[in-house]
Amino acid sequence: MYITPLEATPHHTDADDGLEVVGGKGRSLARMAKAGFNVPGGFIVTAAAYRSFVSTNQLQEKIVALARPAVVDGRVSFEQASSAIQALFAEYDPSAEITAEISQAYGSLDDSPVAVRSSANAEDLPGLSFAGQQETYLNVTGTDEVVAAVRNCWASLWTPQAISYRHQNGIDQGSVAMAVVVQAMVSSQVSGILFTANPATGERSEIIVNASFGLGEAVVSGQVTPDTYIVDKENLRAKETIIGPKEQQVVAHGSQGTRLADVDEANRGKSSLTDDMLQQLSKTAIDIEKLYDGVPQDIEWAVVGDDLYLLQSRPITNLPVQPIEVVWEPPPPARILYRRQIVENMPDPICPLFEELYLTEGLEAPRKHRPSMMPGGGPAFMTCNGYAYCRADHPSNRIDPNASEEELQAAFKRTIDEIWERHGDQSAEEKYDMALFRSELTAEEQAEFDAVAATYEGDNLAHDLTLPPSDNPTYVANNKTQNNDARWQTWQEEALPRLVGTAEKWRKVDPHNATDEELLAGIREMAIEEGTYWTGNTSHTFGIAKSTDDQLQCFLHENLPDDRYISGQFLTGFESKTLQANAILFEIAKLVRASEALTYLVIVTPAQFLSRALQEHAEGAPILKALDDYFDVYGHQGYSLDFVEPTQAEDPSATFATLKSMVQNANYDPKDQEARATAVRGKKFEEVSQKLSGLTYWQFRYRLWFGRRYNHIREETAFYFGYTWSVLRPMAFELGRRMVDAGTFLDPEDTFFLVTDELKRAIEARKTGTGLPELGELAAERRELREARKLLHPPGTMPEEASNIPSVRFKETQIRNDESSDGLNGFAVSSGTVTAPASVILSQNDFDKMEPGSILVAPNTTPAWTQLFAHAVGLVTDMGSILAHGSIVAREYGIPAVLGVGNGTVRIKHGQSITIDGDAGSVTLHEEGTAHP
Q: Of the candidates 230, 263, 233, which has an alpha carbon nearest to the alpha carbon of residue 248?
């Protein structure tokens, strides 16, 4: 009734309820045994025994009631729940009937030592492995000991980590049960784990083997550093062998249990596997993968003499897609590409429809009837391997990148001189700017300025004040207030109203009632208008903030080179939409904190389930209303500018993760951060005021005034990036749903992976009642390709030697760093030094992994990432420079930041200790952390 022999359970391996009977591990072992693989003999104590034990002793209601999270120091804890449940299991023995059946089955194994392994009904599944969260007992001898081990396995269903894992994944605690696998003990000489695909890279042509002496527990639990073999799946030969130290091994401890023993020093440097055994193991693994329909497997194995035993096989969880080989070369007619300007907001490969409508049509629309400004013609933006790039083929960059440094600098200087000559006489504008600057000084400051002006001995005070002598090209652009103010006014009166008007026009259209043609027309118009919003005006308006910021930075570096001042120290502590969003979210957190019940609910509920939990809670309505108001203003913002990615309003889990952190940290208040930023600004201003005098001091004051005058523009204009996406995406999904019903698409999201002409074909086919399934297949191929491309690391500049050209290097947003040094260099954008663990956050799906008090490491950040800054003590990004979003926000929060390190998310591991110096632009890597999940 409660026991099934392992070799005689074929009916459980294929039936839908097999998982509920023998659990994940039991089902897998039975399937391998049925297929003829060498699985140690034994039996399975079915989940019915667990359910009987729980029912007989009336434990179910008690367990479910106890399996609730506690809040300890603002963090979720299941330690207390686990201890209480474990105590319940210890109070009772299995029934006489269960004990008798176990005794009889164990007797059939000649009362020899056995391994007793947990096999829950929610483990070893493709998406949920539960690896290492329930117990295994090795070298168990004797009936009483086996029965006790079975009960202990049942209890291990309720370890803190197992309860927490189910809680985080939304698995009903009352639905779980435990079968137990009892097998003849394999006293292995060598054992380990094998992956039929490379779990780190996703490469399906490689087998990864970890092996060590003794029992496999040492390898599985990480107690030893094993040998690692990378095997070519085609010829079954090792491509690479890394001999681990293998100082210790797990061995049987007499007739009961195991112990850790030293490996003989003479054997530590030897390979634990022979070539023949490695080939046999690899061939067997391939056969097991075939048994599981080609799904890559994570296999535990053991070797005794010449015999290979299989102890477990489960799908590899979180396996990356198959990597692809690519070449990074600018596609014709481009000569030089770099990852800057608007493409900084597109960290991932972009989808085909976005590339067509935004990158190719939208960004080019304002220049459509003008000759290309690029030598050789063609668009200003293009993709390489799916990643968006900006062309750098301006005439000023037509310099041989392999020329000498002297020739490069001379050519660069000629270019700058030519630009200044084209500017002509600007004395009137310079005098206007000096007068405007003076008018905004206090009366006392005006007197001080006039005193310095009276002693000026040069030819043109206004010129020397507003444009100090420098060879740096940063002063060339956006250096006059009248031009800047006019451009800002145009943005306010023309560019922004046009974008908002386009969104409102299509917001009035109900996607469900619109025709297919109307849906496509709306998608096209909004996407193209978004591109026009940038190229037509916003890029130039946005550039004002970048130029004036960089001009202050340049002045500080040239006049106070030993003090490591950066512009960000002087441009912080001012109101912005970024800080407003954080302040509103904090007010919602305060509403939550006012209720003990809501505080508990928000802290213990995983972010992805919080919206539903608030809807079901008696006190949740005011919080939901406040969140709705928040999303009405900020919900259009996305985690990438590419409209294939959801907006905050669509996927609020990242916002909820931040709300949870604010509620957890009772001491957090954004005003404290603002106060610190303001204090730093005041302190640095006083320092510089003491160091500079005469005209140089007033040049500093002018640059500071100029920078502050326009610094807000960056966040104001960027706030509206993707403003229409919250209208566009529902239309795209509605069109996609119709095409799924028509038999053309496999998924509503396929809309994003086709281009206009293909979508028109699908629409025409639907009119005749026919489907075009080949379009759905094409979309699926492109989606899979995009996923593979996400694993690529796009260079900041192509070709690499183009970075030698000063006018290219001046605008780069990534610095090349090698793959092995213990340090990374980037752009110093927010001052300070901090050492802390790293939170490597690759996308919004990782937001809940952000640890308070850690350094945020990300590909780049958009306004939707702002929430994370409240709990970070530093920032490192792969892409970005002085006026990237991360730079601005890091300054406002007063945290050190180094941007544009190129490969930070690759080199830095989640949890690894790093030091960042926001004044020097350096990142130092310390001891290893955990691999990013």
A: 263
What tens digit of pLDDT does each residue of 678-729 get?
888 899 999 999 999 999 999 999 999 999 999 999 889 999 999 999 999 9
Answer for the pair 852, 843: CB distance below 8 angstroms, yes or no.
no
Give the chain's end-to-end CA distance (angstroms, integer).
41
The Cα 522–Cα 502 span in angstroms is 9
Q: Where are the domains of the chain?
A: 1-183, 186-323, 324-426+795-811, 429-560+695-741, 577-676+813-925
Q: Which CATH class is domain 186-323?
A: alpha beta
Q: Pick from 752, 754, 780, 796: which is nearest to 387 by CA?
A: 796
C-alpha–C-alpha distance, residues 875 and 898, integer Å: 6
For residue 859, give both structure tokens.
């590909």
Same-fold call for 1-183 versus 186-323: no
The segments of the chain whose pLDDT lies below 70 read 8-17, 122-133, 394-401, 403, 405, 408-409, 412-413, 415-416, 418-424, 882-883, 885, 928-933
Structure tokens at 119: 């096999």
**Number of Cα atoms under 13 Å in the Cβ half of residue 696:** 12
CB 927: neighbour CB atoms within 10 A?
A: 9
Contacts of 563 (CB under 8 A, 6+ apart): 556, 687, 691
Q: Are strands 913-917 and 797-798 parallel, antiparallel or unpaired?
A: unpaired
Specify the 3-state DSSP secondary structure of 108.
Answer: coil
Per the CB < 8 A criterion, the answer to whether 218 and 138 are in contact is no
Closest CA to 324 of 782, 793, 792, 753: 792
Q: Which residues pair with 833 in a beta bridge?
A: 917
Within 455-515, where are the H helices? 461-466, 481-490, 496-507
- Which CATH superfamily groups domain 577-676+813-925? Phosphohistidine domain (3.50.30.10)
Residue in the block written with tokens 């909820």? 656
Question: Across-strand partners of 238?
Answer: 231
Return the structure tokens found at 18.
């097999």
d(CA 822, CA 40): 46
Structure confidence at residue 425 (pLDDT): 73
Q: Which of these CATH numbers, 3.40.50.720, 3.10.20.740, 3.40.1280.10, 3.30.1490.20, describes 1-183?
A: 3.30.1490.20
CA dihedral 715, 721, 727, 729 (to 10 degrees): -130
pLDDT of residue 808: 78
Strands 913-917 and 922-925: antiparallel
User: Which pairing describes strands 854-858 and 872-877: parallel, antiparallel, or unpaired?
Assistant: parallel
* Cα–Cα dist 454/452, whole Å: 5
For residue 431, CA distances in Å to 35, 465, 466 come to 89, 10, 9
**What's the predicted TM-score (pTM) here?**
0.87
